[in-house]
Specification:
Length: 427
């Protein structure tokens, strides 16, 4: 039922009550009994709905009392012959409850409880003053009580949902702005930014920060906003019970989360478990359809842009076999190579191309020899055994590489140079 339909149905029942003389005849009896009705209304709601009594919000009970009184006064006004109102007090109450995150079901349950108490109050008053058909009077009052409850429930639901949506949009805008400020870095002299960060708790001392970057295994799925938001919700759900602050949103077609927690209580206490170690087990529970990169812990908000880059690079190494990758677990060589490749076009020495062509002709034997020699700690005999070739073959291939490149693989520095060149060329 829409709000307009509910209002029309309520007006119809009021017209019926007026036509049979209940309005305004019952008004005086309602006035005499209204305090008892109000007391019974509050008592019934508190007895049947624990959410009001157990709420930690100190405003809940006083506001319940005021709201109950407003309903009693509204019914007295209507029975006195007043026009059908707009029930703004119901909408205001619902918006207030939405802001408090008080459950909508408890509000509607309170109206259902109130229906029993208020209908009895109205029925007693109407029958006390009835001059005609008592059964007709009771039926008309019952119809009014039903439509009154329907109307206030419809208005409360509509306003509660609308307010929840408005609050979610405002919170989304705030979180988006915070993400942008923290990931890009900020000017400490900007007073507005400083106030925003301080209110959100991002200028507190002794905090550690960790950035997480996530995307679907199929990157094209990130073009779907609903899919990206599901990942955001999943991450928030997983860390909900952890002792960390989270700020998760969508940025640059990636889901990005900034997590923070107290690093140590004072300068004299020991460091706690790293933030990344606390978060990682929960991220592993997200399922096989999500890949995640994690940064190392950073000591302040000034390092969050660095952590963001670490997390994005770690994401590059995530796969279906290793879905959550921490930056600290990636060897230095692949980190360096990936960073170099991201930097743009590489200009390598001319001998790199010659070596690449020769290696291709040898079906990868030259590169395999260099790697085997490095992995054997530059031990020719061990490298030969690992490759199942004669040691002289190792010497022959190293000489051939020297002829092509001018680099002597039997020296550490030039061996390292050759291996880096091969990796860069293949990238």
């Amino acid at each position: 039922m829409t709000q307009l339909e509910a209002s029309a149905a309520l007006r119809k029942t009021l017209s019926t009550l007026e036509a049979i003389g209940v309005i305004p005849a019952a008004s005086a009896a309602l006035d005499r009994q209204h305090e008892a009705a109000l007391e019974g209304l509050e008592k019934t709601i508190l007895e049947e709905i624990p959410a009001f009594s157990t709420s930690g919000n100190p405003d809940v009970l006083p506001e319940l009392e005021r709201h109950a009184k407003a309903h009693v006064e509204e019914i007295r006004r209507l029975f006195a012959g007043g026009p059908n109102g707009d029930f703004q007090f119901v909408a205001t109450h619902a918006a207030r409850r939405a802001g408090q995150k008080f459950p909508l079901e408890s509000i509607l349950h309170a109206y259902r409880c109130g229906h029993k108490v208020l209908s009895r109050w109205m029925r007693n008053a109407a029958t006390e003053t009835a001059t005609g058909n008592v059964e007709q009077v009771i039926s008309a009052v019952a119809d009014f009580a039903i439509e009154y409850t329907n109307t206030i429930s419809t208005i409360a639901t509509s306003e509660y949902v609308a307010q929840t949506r408005r609050l979610a949009e405002a919170e989304g805008d705030r979180r988006t702005e915070l993400l942008g400020i923290l990931l890009k870095g900020f000017d400490e002299s900007d007073g507005r930014v400083a106030r925003l960060l301080r209110r959100a708790g991002y200028l507190e001392q002794r905090q550690s920060y960790c950035v997480v970057v996530a995307q679907a295994v199929d990157p094209t799925e990130m073009d779907n906003p609903a899919r990206a938001q599901r990942i955001v919700s999943s991450i928030n759900d997983r860390v909900l019970n952890l002792p960390v602050r989270s700020l998760v949103g969508v940025r640059e077609d990636l889901v990005v989360g900034i997590f923070s927690a107290t690093r140590r209580m004072s300068g004299w206490t020991a460091l706690q478990t790293t933030l990344a170690e606390i978060i990682r087990p929960q991220l592993l529970k997200l399922g096989p359809a999500v890949l995640i990169g994690m940064s190392t812990d950073q000591p302040s908000t000034a390092f969050i842009p660095t952590a963001f880059e670490e997390a994005r690079l770690a994401l590059d190494f995530a796969s279906v076999t290793e879905r959550v990758v921490q930056y600290s677990d990636i060897p230095i060589r692949p980190i360096m190579l990936r960073a170099v490749r991201r930097g743009g076009q590489l200009t390598l020495p001319a001998w790199v191309d010659r070596l690449f062509v020769a290696d291709k002709k040898s079906r990868g034997a030259l590169a395999a020899t260099l790697r085997a020699y490095a992995e054997a700690n530059m031990n020719v005999l061990q490298a030969a055994r690992n490759l199942s070739v004669h040691p002289n073959t190792i010497y022959s291939r190293v000489q051939r590489i020297a002829d092509i490149t001018g680099q002597d693989a039997f020296t550490f520095n030039e061996l390292n140079e050759l291996l880096l060149a091969i990796d860069c060329r293949r990238g």
